[in-house]
Amino acid sequence: MILDLLITAALIIGGAFALIGSYGLLRLKDPFQRLHAPTKGSTLGVGAVLVASALAHFARGQGASWHEVLVTGFIFLTAPLTALYLARVHLHRAEPKPPLPSPATGSGWASRDLGLENIQPEREKE
Amino acid sequence: MRRLFPHPYLTVTLVVLWLLLVNRLALGSVVMALILGTAIPLITARWWPGTPPVARPLALISYIGLVIWDVIIANLQVARIVLFMPTARIKSAWITVPLDLTSPEAITLLAGTITMTPGTLTADIASDGKSLLIHSLHAPDPDAIRDDIKVRYEARLKRIFAE
Amino acid sequence: MIAYALTFAIGCFALALLMNLIRLATAKAPGDRILAVDTMVINVIGLIVLYGIKTASGLNFEAAILFAMTGFVSTVAFAKFLLRGNIIE
């Protein structure tokens, strides 16, 4: 009974967060703000659904299921990397460039100092 | 011992990963996991430059617990901003976080933590590797966020990696 | 009770996928489109897992893991192509 309640709660939380994450993607105006909603909302949404799945597996009397841990771990490991790459894409292509603060020491931010700004995609070069 | 297991953390990760993949804890799976966990680091040792300098593995586990809790809180905050705050009133800000950490592993872990927790997102690293560029979704007080990151996450990571 | 919650969650994920599709169609910058596709992948993983709960089978997890991996790799490849004009350097 308690297990049933937990599964239900996890399912509802998961669905709601997935919905909020995608709704944020539609609603927020700035491309950098839009990065926030899906990386956090959808990741926790799927995480809650995976918890529900593990509990449901247990409730059916089939013992513990560990695949959920694997999927959750993988999603939580890769979400920050995706966000970092997309932030760099936005920084690279944003017009006009957002007003970035300067780093505490040194000359500048890595992707700018590498001269990424000057590299054009191959097709555009021709 | 050192020659048989050149990368102990990689061995442990591979064993756990294999057991998770086969999804059952039988003797055969454990033996297979140990074979893979020994063979793969030995074969690929040439491409692994060094071991991550984790000094306190137990503190790492409690750190992961803290981050999972913060991820849940972060989601509630972001959900509130997304659902109820008028888009014109959301004040985003760019924040520079000066780093005391030096090892690449620790900085990577900090950057990942920042992305997953309250309304902040790592966007870039300084070319000398001594500060992180962070975008904050709603930051009325950017300095407070920077101090929070330094006290809550960086200090703990410093202890874990013994820097 | 679980059946109702399951239906609700599947509905939520379906609606989320629809929103991502609208975003994908209306976005102007390529970065936004990649983000929309990446969110779609995560939502599809959620749907696969929900289907697994519904049919009480563990077979779907291989599909979910594969989806997570290919989704991540394709997002990074896309982003890298936009950044460098090249994927494998």
UniProtKB/TrEMBL annotation, chain A:
Q: Which InterPro entries match?
A: PhaG_MnhG_YufB (IPR005133)
One Pfam short name: PhaG_MnhG_YufB
Q: Which residues cross the membrane?
A: 6-26, 38-59, 65-87
Q: Which UniProt keywords apply?
A: Membrane, Transmembrane, Transmembrane helix
Q: Which domain of life is it from?
A: Bacteria
Coiled coil ranges: none
Ranges for the region named Disordered are 95-126
**S-adenosyl-L-methionine listed as a keyword:** no
The record's GO molecular-function terms, alphabetically, read: sodium:proton antiporter activity
Asked if the keyword Transmembrane helix belongs to this entry, the reply reads yes
Stated name of the protein? Na+/H+ antiporter subunit G
Supply the source organism for this entry.
Fuscibacter oryzae
TrEMBL record, chain C:
Q: Which GO terms describe its molecular function?
A: sodium:proton antiporter activity
User: What is this organism's lineage?
Assistant: Bacteria, Pseudomonadati, Pseudomonadota, Alphaproteobacteria, Rhodobacterales
One GO cellular component term of this record is: plasma membrane
The record gives the membrane topology as: Multi-pass membrane protein
* Record key words, sorted: Cell membrane, Membrane, Transmembrane, Transmembrane helix, Transport
* TM ranges: 6-22, 34-53, 65-83
**Species of origin:** Fuscibacter oryzae
Q: Which PANTHER family match?
A: NA(+)/H(+) ANTIPORTER SUBUNIT F1 (PTHR34702), NA(+)_H(+) ANTIPORTER SUBUNIT F (PTHR34702:SF1)
Which Pfam families does this UniProt record tie to the protein? MrpF_PhaF
Top-rank lineage group of the source organism? Bacteria
Location comes to: Cell membrane
Q: Indicate the principal place this protein occupies in or around the cell.
A: membrane
State the family named in the UniProt similarity comment for this chain: Belongs to the CPA3 antiporters (TC 2.A.63) subunit F family.
Protein's UniProt name: K+/H+ antiporter subunit F
